[in-house]
Design a protein that fits this description.
By secondary structure, this protein is of the alpha+beta class. The protein is built from seven helices and 13 strands. The N terminus is likely disordered.
């Protein structure tokens, strides 16, 4: 190889190992990012509309219990659920675009790594060919000493550039690894979003069916609705009295030393947005609503279809739906999770359950969707949409059929000694 060709090779390789991206892919990535941003703004708009609808649902719930207000609540809930579907569809679209974008970025980095490798390898081979020449042969190629020193300096800079390029290759490989991990995470997110979409479609259909059933049962007459409402409230109170009397007879000794010390933050909130509508124990509302005069958990505001998260890792002890038996006005659709620290948590009035008995669940994992909208499947004994969160000493609660019941004989239900009831607020984080 002559010296002119060698210098050209060095300059050419120096150009190759400078980081860069392929022009067509840059445009594609930019376009994808622009579309992702558009979907983000679309989601924000839908979520803002949902907040308004949630307020409307709450305001309607405060009004007198009339057929008109019940239908209005179901209609507003339907709009909100349809928006939920659109939000999830937007999440799916955005995630699919992100996967495509990351895929292009991965391809660009892989091509860049291969180009750099080839350029460095070629330059090192040429350098090796030059090293094989004798000192006299090398010296005689140059016209004067200045040209020799100039080329020596070029070689020195080339050596430094190769070292820098090797470091860049290492960084590119690390970035590539991160991108591949990000891509896998996005694929998992996509699966979760598609499952979420499927679940929400079920809840939408439940809400539609509830409205149809309500209008059929009441014959679209206010007087019939009043009779139906009074009957449901009476059945709920009778079962609550029946269960209270039965549980009061249970003599289960609770070893409090097996329970964790009460401290804020041991449990997580089961909802992303928290507002307590009824507290634990002997409250004014509890005296009004329950024969026992006490509330065995806390109620949290939640419109139908709100994701419900488990408060602590554990194993699903049982699942069920007391609405499976006509006239059984109790927890509705429920999930009981047993934790490893002696506590068990109950989630009830759900519109949908995502878990099965014996399934392990991680803290913060979505296990179901809230319900509580009267007339919908899983609502149970409920005067409005909400989530009931109960907490027990595990040794004092069990799951089984309450065979002595006059109203809920055929359904599976959590049964606990009153001594096992615990206040969830003693372990949940403080409200901001």
């Amino acid at each position: 190889m002559n010296r002119g060709h060698f210098i050209f090779t060095i300059v050419f390789c120096l150009c190759l190992i400078v980081p860069g991206a392929i022009h067509g892919q840059v445009l594609s990535v930019t376009e994808l990012q622009r579309e992702i941003e558009r979907k983000r703004l679309e989601k924000e708009k839908l979520e803002a509309e949902n907040r308004k609808l949630e307020t409307q649902i709450q305001e309607t719930g405060k009004q007198a219990k009339t057929l008109q207000s019940a239908v209005k609540t179901l209609d507003t809930t339907q709009k909100k659920l349809q928006n939920d579907l659109k939000v999830t569809e937007t999440d799916i679209g955005s995630t699919e675009l992100s996967i495509k974008k990351i895929g292009l970025e991965i391809n660009a980095k892989e091509q860049h790594i291969n180009t750099n490798k080839e350029a460095i390898a070629e330059s090192l081979r040429n350098l090796q060919d030059t090293d094989n020449q004798s000192t006299i042969e090398t010296f005689l190629q140059y016209k004067n000493i200045n040209e020799l020193w100039h080329n020596i300096e070029t070689l020195r800079r080339f050596q430094s550039s190769v070292q820098q390029s090797i470091r860049q290759l290492k960084n590119l490989k690390e970035e590539l690894s991160e991108k591949k991990s990000e891509n896998e995470e996005k694929k998992v997110e996509l699966v979760e979003y598609k499952e979420d979409l499927s679940d929400k479609k079920v809840v939408v259909e439940q809400n539609k069916k509830a409205k149809t059933t309500l209008l059929v049962q009441t014959k679209n007459k206010e007087g019939e609705y009043k009779k139906l409402l009074a009957k449901n409230i009476e059945l709920g109170r009778k079962f609550e009295q029946e269960l209270f009397q039965y549980e009061a007879q249970l003599k289960i000794a609770i070893d409090k030393s097996k329970l964790p010390t009460e401290r804020s933050g041991l449990l997580q909130w089961p909802l992303a947005s928290v507002m307590i509508t009824q507290r634990f124990g002997k409250t004014v509302d509890a005296k009004r609503l329950y024969v026992s005069g006490t509330h065995n958990g806390i109620d949290l505001r939640a419109t139908m279809g709100t994701p419900v998260k488990v408060v602590l890792s554990g194993i699903v002890e049982g699942v069920g739906n007391t609405d499976a038996q006509a006239g059984c006005y109790s927890y509705g659709r429920w999930i009981l999770v047993k934790h490893s620290n002696g506590l068990s948590s109950l989630y009830s009035h759900l519109s949908l359950s995502r878990v099965a008995q014996g399934q392990p669940v991680a803290a913060g994992e979505v296990i179901g969707l809230s319900g509580g909208q009267p007339g919908t499947s899983g609502a149970g004994y409920s005067t409005g949409p909400h989530l009931h969160l109960g907490l027990y000493a595990s040794e004092g609660v069990s799951v089984g059929k309450y065979s002595q019941s006059n109203f809920c004989k055929q359904v599976t239900i959590p049964i606990a000694s009153p001594a096992a009831y615990l206040d969830p607020l003693a372990y949940l984080p403080p409200l901001n």
